[in-house]
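If you are new to this repository, start here. Below is one unmodified record pulled from the training split, so you can see the exact layout before writing a loader.
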Amino acid sequence: AHILGIALPSSFAYRDAQEKLAPDFIGSDKCGAIALDELVYWAEFLFAQGHPLIFALNIGTTFKGGFDPIKKIVARLPQVFNDSSARHYWIHVDAAICGNTLPWIEQTQTAGDWPLALTADEFPHFDFRIAQVSSICASPYKWMGAPFPFGVYLTRGQFRLQPPVHPKYIGSPDSTFSGSRSGLACVYAWHYFSTKTPADHWQEVTVLQRVVDYAYAELKKLEGHLWMGETPFQVFAPNYLAPMICFTQPAQAIIDQFSLASEDTAYGTLSHIIILKQVTTAVIDCFIARLKQEHHYE
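And here is the target side for that same chain:
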């Protein structure tokens, strides 16, 4: 589910014309993407109450890797904001993981080297080519394999803090939040990109998709043969272009060994794996073997 971010006093509640209480969160579809009609309904209602809105959308939700339909949401905005002359909203895109891979996948597909062709309408575009997108964030360290975390925040030039300060210790304008800059992260990212060609990035995302496909195929083979106590093992097809695969939660020993995240869902408690460059088919084979070893396999 997606949190409906509106700060209200604890004693206060919004109700629509049908006395329906405004929810704390917006629902999701089975793929993890935000429920479009529900989002538009409550956005229209809250805007009518005088609230400017911030849409925090996802490209690769944390657990299922779902893609919020940004283009479809943008197409419905005139239904919410009837005054096109004023900007009453902000659209932020959280592309923590998939924001690092989708641009290369798009280029690979354009070059004709991607295994499945997607039309322009099918590809999950999320960047500033969509005029209504205000800001984007990503976590490059996850994809690069950096030994320390760092993130990137992008916004349009017109929205930057103005004027920037001029701290003497760096000798140049600085529009970042004070204390938020990491010089080592900048050096690491510069080295990463300066030592790779576009072809290197295309090859990496192609190999990544092959490992995702391999992992899903091998996990699918366990269905009907693997049991977690009385619960049959089940795996769910990943959202195409997202490196997350969800399946029935295994034993705690496996969760600890492979650092799995788990979540309660309509399908029971599930765990997931996120496949990045350091996850090879050998790692997947090891994971499958541990599942068979720890649980009843027939």
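Two things worth knowing about this chain: The first helix runs from residue 36 to 48. The radius of gyration is 22 Å.
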